[in-house]
Write a structure and sequence with these properties.
By secondary structure, this protein is α+β, with helices and mostly antiparallel strands. It has five helices and seven strands.
């Protein structure tokens, strides 16, 4: 077999996890409520989306993506006296939902906002009859791994996005 020239590099890595409504209710997290993002959240969605993209290293999950999710009614904020955490559903069907963005600004991390938001999202998905729930994470993220443990997530698969030149 002949060798071809060129190079490759790992662009991003990801892990798909599954979670259920029962496992997500073990820790209610912080006080507040989950609300659907509205037109008035445009600047916040863009800003937090850009920050989430930088934190995760996933360029596609940026402010533009968050604006698309906002327009599609797939973007949520956990709010007490102000927004504390943002959740983006990358897709939702009759039976399944995939969460691809869970972002809490650094100043609010470690206070249970992401857990509370995901617990509330599970209740919302229960009401809609959505049985299959997935969470896309960065396997190198300590925060994502901690949230996955709290939610009782199960492993589905690991993925690599490879750039070839």
């Amino acid at each position: 077999m002949s060798q071809r020239g060129g190079s490759w590099a790992i662009n991003t890595s990801g892990r798909l996890l599954s979670f259920s409504s029962l496992s997500a209710t073990n820790d209610p997290g912080a006080a507040g409520m989950l609300r659907l993002a509205a037109a008035g959240d445009t600047a916040l969605a863009q800003s937090w989306g850009a920050a989430a993209s930088i934190d995760s290293g996933i360029a596609a999950l940026d402010g533009r993506m968050c604006m698309q999710l906002l327009g599609a009614k797939l973007l949520y904020f956990w709010v007490d006296d102000q927004p504390r955490c943002m959740i983006g559903l990358l897709r939702e069907t009759r039976d399944s939902a995939a969460v691809g963005i869970v972002y809490t600004p650094a100043t609010f991390r470690g206070q249970g906002y992401a857990t509370a938001a995901m617990t509330a999202l599970c209740k919302l998905l229960d009401e809609r009859g959505v049985a299959n729930r997935y969470l896309w994470t960065d396997p190198k993220s300590d925060g994502a791994n901690a949230l996955a443990r709290k939610l009782g997530c199960g492993f589905v698969y690991d993925s690599l996005d490879i750039d070839c030149a």
